[in-house]
Design a protein that fits this description.
The structure holds two protein chains of two kinds. Chain A is α+β, with helices and mostly antiparallel strands. Chain A has three domains: about 50 residues, no CATH class; about 100 residues, Uridine Diphospho-n-acetylenolpyruvylglucosamine Reductase, domain 3, CATH 3.30.465.10; about 100 residues, 2-Layer Sandwich (Enolase-like, domain 1), CATH 3.30.390. Chain A contains eleven helices and twelve strands. In chain A, helix 9 packs antiparallel against helix 10 and helix 10 packs antiparallel against helix 11. Chain A is globular. By secondary structure, chain B is of the alpha+beta class. Chain B has five helices and five strands, in the order E-E-H-E-E-E-H-H-H-H. Classes of the chains: A alpha+beta, B alpha+beta. At the A-B interface, strand 1 and helix 5 of A face strand 4, helix 3 and helix 4 of B.
Chain lengths: ~270, ~150
């Protein structure tokens, strides 16, 4: 269990950032679910509840998602069910239970760059940008590859394009962490294949995605691309599965996800 | 820190530690239906409603419910008894340790979902674990209670 010396609920984000920067062990609170599993000694905990960052809305051709939005709001929001073949609600709907998803936040899930994240895998397949208070707006892939710093994830921006995306995973039991998860997205003739919970954090299989985009996506090409994804990305072993098991699983889930995207209807 | 909150339609002002969780605060004030079991936010035993949405009281810091409405099973005795009678009639109740949290989530589901399918019921209740039963009796009871077809 974590401990904290002080807790503040600032009314503006600048104050929140100043307090965060003041001391090394000052920490932003998300839903606290993962935090409470550890034994972190927090100096000042910063609760963003008063910053009105819990919302999902459409802004200038983007879906804007506030950092304090819960995963359950993400799961049940009408706009997100309709966009991108509903990939975002589908990616979070099996995380523990409804009560858990009512508490945990989008901002913490993304900012923490968890390897096991289901949400990051789906977001990475879409045209997603992260807006940090100090670091500004950047593509999610750049954020994931950047060194860990101290900042506040204010909101996500997802381009409202006409892409179709599918999210698949394998869990050893319902509501457990994914052994492996996969998201595949098609925008016109451009395909993006993402694999997460490897158990390292989600990554785009760029070479395999390019091969898929250049071809005709025939059954044999899909088979070949699924093999290429499993060779392009690295896999590791943890209590949920071995690297070899994940590699084998990757081929199956990628092939299945591509086929499901092909079957998605235009909207 | 001092917080003011509405528990089961009654306003309270309590002193809480900054790193105190809602489940501990509620139990310290006699609301003993709220149980803790897993320590990993996945068993659902501590389910209460905050602003009428089901949440895990073991995972929410008490300071975060300042100014909010919290409902425990003590606050919905009529609905809880109605469902509990169906549950026992189906033989689904064994040790009863998980029942308060489970019942609070079933009541929340009843408010949120209209005529849910079996798949939707199971999905909504996945976050409530029971180590005595195989869930089938509970599923039958939930379907009877909601008035949806038994398949």
């Amino acid at each position: 269990m974590f401990t904290l010396s002080d807790l503040v609920q600032p009314d503006n984000i600048d104050t929140a950032y100043q307090i965060l920067s003041n001391k090394r062990n000052n920490t932003i609170l998300g839903g606290c679910a993962f935090l409470k599993m550890g034994a972190k000694r927090i100096g000042t905990a910063i609760d963003l509840t008063n910053l009105n960052l819990s919302y999902i809305k459409e802004t200038d051709g983007f879906i804007e998602i506030g950092g304090m939005t819960s995963l359950r709001e993400l799961e049940t929001h009408t706009l997100l069910k309709e966009c991108f073949a509903g990939v975002l609600p589908k990616s979070v709907r099996n995380i523990i239970g409804v009560q858990f998803r009512n508490s945990v936040t989008v901002g913490a899930s993304v900012y923490a760059k968890y390897g096991f994240s289901d949400l990051i895998t789906a977001l990475l397949a879409l045209d997603t940008q992260v807006e940090l208070y100090k670091g500004g707006r950047m593509p999610l892939v750049d954020f994931l590859n950047s060194p860990k710093g101290k900042d506040i994830l204010v909101r996500l921006w997802i381009k409202m394009d006409n892409c179709k995306a599918v999210y698949l995973n394998l869990r050893n039991s319902a509501s457990d962490y994914s052994v492996l998860n996969v998201a595949v997205c098609r925008l016109d003739e451009q395909w993006t294949i993402v694999v997460g919970a490897r158990p390292r954090r989600a990554a785009i299989a760029s070479k395999a995605s390019a091969v898929l985009s250049q071809g005709k996506q025939s059954a044999s090409e899909i088979e070949d691309v699924a093999q290429k994804v499993s060779e392009e990305l690295s896999f590791g072993t943890n209590m949920r599965g071995t690297a070899n098991y994940r590699k084998a699983l990757c081929k199956v889930l990628v092939k299945r996800a591509i086929t499901e995207v092909q079957a998605c209807k235009s909207h | 820190m001092q917080i003011t909150l509405t528990i089961n339609n009654k306003v309270h002002t309590w002193n809480v530690e900054k790193d105190e969780f809602l489940a501990d605060t509620l139990r310290a004030h006699g609301l003993l239906s709220v149980k803790k079991a897993c320590e990993s936010s996945c068993c659902g035993l501590c389910t209460v409603w905050v602003e009428y949405k089901p949440v895990l009281a073991c995972t929410i810091l008490s300071v975060r419910v300042h100014g909010k409405a919290v409902t425990t099973i003590e606050g919905v005795p009529t609905e809880a008894e109605e469902f509990a009678r169906v549950l026992t009639a189906e033989g689904a109740e064994q040790c009863g340790f998980c029942s308060p949290g489970f019942i609070m989530n079933v009541l929340a589901m009843k408010k949120e979902l209209i005529n849910p399918s079996e798949e939707e019921i199971i999905h909504y209740l996945t976050g409530n674990l029971c180590r005595c039963t195989g869930y089938m009796g509970q599923l039958r009871a939930v379907k009877t209670y909601l008035g949806v077809a038994q398949v």
